[in-house]
Design goal:
The structure is a homodimer. By secondary structure, chain A is an alpha/beta fold. The first copy, chain A, is built from 11 helices and 12 strands.
Chain lengths: 281, 281
């Protein structure tokens, strides 16, 4: 698909939007779902986050969400991330994607209800991975959506993989790839803790929140976490950090905030001072 | 995206499937929804059709469904088919797609429940039109799904259009395009009448069912209908016929059957004698 130039009338109408680079917001699976209960959305959190997005009214905006208790159970049961091994896994691939469609539908509907022209974009309909890494990615369609004033909503998904048949594409890998592709203004990551800590805050009460961190410090920190990491199927905080490094290297700033606390996403979108971890490029 | 060759293990495992060309089945919007009631699925029909698909067990299979009372109300209210005119239509674009996601989800879930590894494929995530006609279309992803043994389920959708901003892609256009692209074995179209009639069977009780029709007769017939046609926003039977002609020209046979009658889809899938209209290439 060639990059297609929109007719002049669209270009003019959306010029004001186009002058701005996109903001990429990630809504973590642990925020939009109840992590402990399979296939249970956190409707209250979704409604609040959508309200904050509506109030901030930042454009252009790309929203990406994780799978939480929707994506993970089937993906794990059928070992989708491990790739194709036998035809019995195919129904698991179907179920994993279908669970993500259910969660995505809920989030997009909440956005539409607040009059945000959100448009679901199925990752697995246009992205193929190679051993779990995005191989090929045509950004024309999403660019065109942004140009028109639509708000694309993507999600981590079960995708086809050219080496292993299929794989799991994480929302975090998607965030970094899209942010780089669209030269994003900023990335905002909503997780279920206040940001990056010196240690796991859920296990160690002495863990301290890191308010600001440079790219070099981040790389060192990522290395440190990697060494001490226990089993973490979802990639956890290290996975998020590691995935974001390429975007930060391209000069894109990242703010990690607690999506469970009211108004933090709003403040981050408004570029106001807000508790969290700022990753300086 | 380049056409990617699957690793040998997949090729071998799916060789038996690959020897066969695909069958393309269209489930009309008037069958899978209650046409008169907005956003009302016909769950009983969906369950029965899925059961017939399961029983026939034809592979590889591509399923495409229309919008019926899900897709049409918002598309009409916001004049999506007419293209972008003002930013107030954007939310209508969102709503139209979202309604199609809801209907698609229902159909895919019914297939998964019968252990068919169905996979929703969002048309608007990889197809762009030009004045409502498919401009560009990468078939690699769907080919790969078929190779693996997955059953892709596509649908008519609100899509981006390079000339007019956005448009409506009909399920019928999708049927012909995919059938040609994958050199389909056969096309089966499920509508809410027994097939093609000499006149509108819903208005004229003397209308006679055409059991068989050649490509030349079909073209003449399409011209005749075109001349006498009254307003029909959905394209109606003429729209279906006109869209199918390019596929028939490529040598692909079409069977039009009544999806409301039990066992007709099953028989058509099994290539058994069944009431309907056969279009000979």
């Amino acid at each position: 698909m060639n990059r297609i130039i929109f007719r002049k009338q669209f270009i003019e109408e959306v010029a004001a939007i186009n002058l701005q680079k996109s903001v990429v917001v990630k809504l973590g699976g642990s925020i939009v779902t109840v992590k402990e209960k399979p296939y249970t959305p956190n409707r209250r959190a979704v409604t609040r986050l959508v309200e904050e997005i509506k109030r901030a009214d930042v454009k252009p905006l790309i929203i990406i969400h994780g799978g939480g208790s929707f994506g993970h159970p089937f993906a794990k049961e059928y070992n989708i991330a491990g790739g194709y091994n036998n035809s019995g896994q195919l129904i698991g691939f179907s179920k994993t994607h279908q669970a993500m469609v259910a969660l995505n539908r809920l989030i997009v509907s909440a956005l539409i209800q607040r009059d945000i022209p959100a448009i679901a974009v199925q990752s697995s309909a246009f992205i193929v991975t190679k051993r779990g890494r995005i191989l090929d990615f045509n950004d024309d369609l999403i660019q065109r959506m942004l140009d028109m004033g639509l708000t694309p909503v993507l999600y981590g998904d079960a995708v086809l993989d050219m080496e292993q048949g299929f794989s799991i594409l994480s929302g975090d890998q998607l965030v970094a790839t899209l942010a780089i592709s669209f030269e994003a203004r900023r990335i905002i990551i909503c997780v279920d803790v206040d940001g990056l800590y010196t240690d796991d805050p859920k296990l160690n009460p002495d863990a301290k929140l890191i308010r600001e961190i440079s790219l070099d410090e981040l790389k060192a920190f990522a290395g440190k976490i990697r060494k001490s990491i226990v089993t973490d199927v979802t990639g956890g905080m290290y996975g998020k950090i590691a995935e974001l490094i390429p975007a930060v290297e391209k000069g894109i700033g990242v703010k990690i905030i607690n999506g469970k606390r009211a108004n933090r996403l709003y403040k981050a979108l408004m570029n106001q001072n807000v508790k969290g971890t700022e990753i300086r490029p």
